[in-house]
Every structure is written in C-alpha cells, then in structure tokens.
Amino acid sequence: MRLRNTLILLATLAAVFAIAMGHFARETPTEAQAGRIALHNSTAYTLPPAELQRAVALSRTHRNLAVADTLWMPLQLLLILVLGVTAWMQGVAVSLSRNRWLQGFSFVFLLLLVTHLLDLPLGIYGHRVAQSYGLSVQGWGSWLADIAKMFALEWLLGGLLAMLIFWVIRWSPTRWWFWFWIPAVLCLVAGVFVTPYVIDPLFNKFEPLAQSNPTLVQQLEQVVARGGINIPPQRMFLMKASAKSTQLNAYVTGFGASKRVVVWDTTIARCTPDEISFIFAHEMGHYALGHVAMGTAISCLALLPLFWLGFHGVHFLLLRYGTSWRIPSQQDWGSLVILLLVLCVLSTLSDPFANAFSRAIEHNADVYAQEAVHGIVANPQQDGRQAFQLLGELSLDDPTTHPLYALWFNTHPPIGFRAAFAEAYDPWATGQQPKYFAK
Ligand SMILES: [Zn+2]
C-alpha cells in the first residue's frame, strides 16, 4: 500500500467528515443562544445527593467497562492469533470435512465459541452491575438465553458472510475489497430493513401502541400531522421493555415499509402524555430529517475505505506474521481473524468521529422535537426538560461525566445539556423563526 494513496484516502475522509459535520452542526441564532445558556445551566437536570453519589459511582464503573471492552476486543483477537488458537481452529475445520461449507461453518462456530467465552467475564460483570443498580430486572436465565440467541444469529449470518468473502477472495485475490463491498452493502441495507421484523421480536415483545394506549396514539397523530409526514398508527409500537429493564427509551428503526417508531412500556408508565409526545417527536425527527436513510448511506460508503484498509492490513500482517501464526495465505480460514482484527482496530479509531456525528444529529432531533410539539403540549420547555430529567434519573445518568470520555464514547449530548437546552429554546417567544417549521 503506497503511503501517498493512504494519505489521499485519509484526507478525503477528513474532508467528507468536515463537510457533513458543517452541514449538521449548523445552528440558527436562537438555537445557538439557547445552547450558550444551556452550557452554563447546571440546574435543569439534577439528582438528590444520595442518587448523585450512586450515579457518579455507576458512571465510573461504566467508564472502566467501556474502556475495557474497547481494548479487550482487538486484544483477544490478537491473542488467539499469537497463541496459535486460530491455527488450531483452522486445523479442526479442515480435518472435519473436505466440504467447504462444513469447514466454513465449523471455523465460524469455533471462533464465535472462543470469543463469546472470552467476552463472558466482562458481560457477566456488566449485567451484575446493571442488576445491582436496579437498571436491569432481567434474570440470569433470560440473559443467557439472549446470548444463546445472539450466538445462533451470528453463526448463521457470520457463516454465510464468511463463505461469501472467501469465495470473492478466491475469485479476485487483489480486488476482493471492492467486489465484497457490493454484497456487503446489500446485506447491510437488507439488515436494516428486516431487523424490526426478524431480529427485534427475538429479544422483546411488541404490540401495536393503539391496543393499550388509544388516546396517546391520538395525541401522537397530532404531532405527526404537525410534522407533515406519514406515520400511520399501525407503525407505532409498544415494546414490553419492563420484562428486562427499568430505564426509559423510544426509538425509530427500519426504513421504507418496515420503518416504525417504538416506545418502551416503561416510558409510558412513568411519563405524562405531553412528555411522551416530546420524546416521540424527537424520534419522529429522526424520520423527518432523514437520519435513518442517511445513517445507512453513510455506513455503506464508509465500508469501502474500511475494506480497502482491511485488505492492505491483512496483507501487511500476513507478510510479517503469517508464518509464526501458521496462516500462510489470505485464502486460509484463519485470515478471517486477521481481517476482523484490522477492521476492529479501524472501527474503534473511527468511533469518536461516528459519535460526534451522532451527537450532532441527536441535537437536531431535540430541536425538531421542541418545535414539533409547540402548540400541542401545554408547555414544550417544561415538558422537554422534565422528559430528560426522568430519562436521566431512571438511567442514573451522571451529570458530571468527564468531557474527554463523552467526546470518545457518547452518542448523545450530555443529558444535563439536553434538559437545559429544552428549557432555554423558545424561538416563538422572541419572534424568531423556528429551525424546521419556519413559515
Ligand atoms: Zn435520538
């Protein structure tokens, strides 16, 4: 890989990122002013002293867990390469059968088994923490069942993808990073489409929101009408989150015919219809502002340089360590672990950029929410602030998160900022134009 090509690629990626951020971080004067007020307001989201202490302790644990997870993922892949586990798994798969399908699925099964076992201690610790802080009410049986389902899914999908990528590698040894990108994009788009139909129901129960909350659906339809978009009541779902969690949430998922809004039953139990309308309007903002389509498109585009770097990374490592790792060529099953290691490092390095982008669009959805419920709920500023107060309280969100940690790991702006922004943002009071609903 020529250094010049790599520099050109990195410069192009930096330029695309800067342009996208410039576009999505653009603020109206009223929005910028509310943002400045929010930065200096530490009373919009507060916790009583005892809860604050627990929140700070929990956030310290979460921080350590997140850092450990981030480091452990590439480290475990490196370990199984260096310790010869990969070569052993490859040997077992090849000795089982001459049939490539059997070999591929056996190799992926062993790889998943080893990595899941290596992940288990951190996973158990994380779940125990969530239980002890009362964030999770999921028992160990159900927790293990979720892991087993995840394993089966990863085996099926990972096995098919492995068969595909090795087929492409044999067919085009030097251009596979491009040829594999095309089916990978198709798989990603198909994955986003079918997730709400096929994957989500494996882990949680869903029912039409109108079934248990018809008056709420009526109010939400008012918000939808205000947004001038089309989300029929059949695309509004209630998720029975209370079987596993005590936290609040709502999200938007799928696209086209599978596009839908999901509200957790915990949110409905704790929030007033006006507060739910605000949370819902934030979710609708992701619809209306095209975040799902855009997120999918950006992920698809980002895969191409990722695969290109992955291809060169695999070659570089095979050349230097192929012999000692007992993986002679990229056509060996074991080279999949090298590729995963390279992709894992690259995706970890790109996390801060992806998260900065995510925080920008989450803020846009907050602005959208406030504007969409204007005139429908009694007091958009108070309802918004209170919704964030409840979200934070029930997740034990630490109002004092370290900015450096937030910069790397957080996908949303700090909850204190979001609450304070909701309280301060009121373009109508000063006769300014709203950002998304300008006349
Ligand atoms: Zn959001």
Walk me through this protein's architecture:
About 70% of the residues lie in helices and about 5% in strands. It is mainly alpha-helical and about 450 residues long. Strand 3 and strand 4 (about 260-265) form a beta hairpin. Helix 3 packs antiparallel against helix 14 (about 335-370), helix 4 crosses helix 5 and helix 13 runs antiparallel to helix 14 (about 335-370). It has one domain. Bound molecules: zinc ion. Zinc ion (ZN) binds near residues 282, 286, 362 and 365.
Record keyword descriptors for this entry.
439 residues, mainly alpha, four-stranded mixed sheet, 17 helices, 4 strands, 4% strand, binds zinc ion
Distance between the termini: 53 Å
Q: Segments where pLDDT lies below 50 for 5+ residues?
A: none
Radius of gyration: 24 Å
Total DSSP E strands: 4
